TrEMBL record:
Signal peptide: none annotated. The keyword Ribosomal protein does not apply. Pfam families: DctP. InterPro entries: DctP_fam (IPR018389), SBP_TakP-like (IPR026289), TAT_signal (IPR006311), TRAP_DctP_sf (IPR038404). This is TRAP-type mannitol/chloroaromatic compound transport system substrate-binding protein. CDD domains: PBP2_TRAP_ketoacid_lactate_like. Keywords: Signal. It comes from Ancylobacter polymorphus.
Length: 379
């Protein structure tokens, strides 16, 4: 502002002219932005074909689906895993090779299924009964050197083009389903029996005729008399697979598979080509669903065991004589298979971990059965 002859005048440039120039400049900038916008395109999602080794109705396939849902949600649509049940692309026992070759991008199974490639492989799924549980097995994987031993076996010894993640701790598996009660180890001599992994070696020490077949084939084999007895894994799976229709004795508690966990696999070439944050999400989702699987299993397994009893099935505990025979058989199996230096390296690492971790738990934790009996055991 300036003062001239007692009048105040505006010394700035014409305000209306400045406003017109501002509006014109802003309009030009907006037009430029509008032209540039089509150059920005949304990236297409990364689509991965992911098959489980489980029948469609099995709770294990549901667990695999939970992992797929978690990945798809955590990536915000950047990744789309497509979940397929066993047999959709390849049979269950061919899933590992299909992932390694790139026929499948990924899959969900258990390391025990690859027993035919290396018995050391089965240690990551059906480890010896050293008194540890599956959660402690996963502790060994994460902090006891287990993942490094797994990677070395899979990628260097077996030359498989896969990345594997161990996930989902399972409780001890039943001795299985039978036509009549198992009263001692002699009852299993000559028996046509289904199990997988190192459990096959163990029951051969019993004199059983062991057959290894996928989960979906077990009940038909019992029904046709091709099997005298079998185990799969848990009450929920056993119920939906139809075991109560073909056998009425269910023996619980066994050391042949006292602990196990799932295995999530990806083709290594495909995995290595993914963005680093997506790789971390795939690993993180494995850990996340490991926990939710365990909690879901607590709910479902307990309910489905009650449902099995309601079907007229005789549910019994495996006798101590069988458990003792299993531990002695483990001694033989471990000694025999430790002639393989790879097997020995892995099992020695597991023993070292189990001795320390289980020893700590037994010394540190109170007896849960003592407390349970106090509150819930009938008088």
């Amino acid at each position: 502002m300036t003062e001239t002859s007692g009048k105040i005048t505006d010394a700035r440039p014409d305000v209306r002219t400045s406003r017109r120039r501002f509006i014109a400049t802003a309009a030009a900038a907006a037009a430029g932005a509008t032209v540039a916008a089509p150059a920005v395109h949304a990236q297409a999602p990364i689509k991965l074909k992911f098959q489980s080794t489980w029948p469609n109705k099995d709770i294990f396939h549901e667990f695999a689906g939970d992992y797929v849902k978690r990945v798809n949600a955590m990536t915000g649509g950047r990744v789309e895993l497509e979940i397929l049940p066993a047999g959709s692309v390849v049979p269950a026992f061919q899933m590992l090779d299909a992932v390694s070759s790139g026929i499948l991008d990924g899959g969900h199974g258990v390391a025990a299924y690859w027993y035919g490639k290396s018995k050391a492989f089965s240690l990551f799924g059906t480890a010896p009964a050293f008194g540890w549980d599956a959660d402690e097995l996963l502790g060994w994987i994460r902090f006891g050197g287990g993942q490094e031993l797994y990677d070395d076996l899979v990628q260097n010894t077996l030359k498989l083009n896969v990345v594997g993640m161990l996930s989902g701790p399972m409780p001890s598996q039943p001795l299985g389903w039978f036509k009549k009660e198992i009263t001692g180890p002699e009852d299993m001599k000559g028996m046509k029996y289904r199990t997988v992994g190192l459990g096959a070696d163990l029951f051969k020490e019993f004199g059983a005729a062991v057959t290894i077949v996928p989960g979906g084939e077990i009940v038909p084999a019992i029904d046709r008399g091709l099997l005298d007895g079998a185990e799969f894994n848990n009450p929920s799976s056993d119920l939906v697979l139809g075991f109560p229709d073909v056998a009425k004795v269910y023996m619980l508690g066994s050391y042949h598979q006292a602990l196990e966990c799932f295995e999530i696999l990806f083709n290594k070439t495909k995995f290595d080509g993914l963005p680093k944050d997506v790789q971390e999400i795939l690993r993180g989702a494995s850990d996340a669903t490991s926990s939710t699987m365990m909690w879901k299993a607590q709910d479902r397994y307990s309910k489905d065991l009650a449902a099995i009893k309601a079907r007229g099935v005789k549910v019994l505990q495996t006798p101590r004589s069988v458990l003792e025979a299993q531990l002695k058989a483990w001694d033989v199996v471990i000694a025999n298979l430790s002639a393989d230096p790879v097997f020995k390296k892995v099992v020695d690492s597991q023993k070292e971990w189990a001795k320390r971790i289980v020893g700590f738990r037994l010394e540190y934790e109170p007896d849960s059965k003592f407390a349970y009996d106090h509150f819930f055991k009938p008088a």
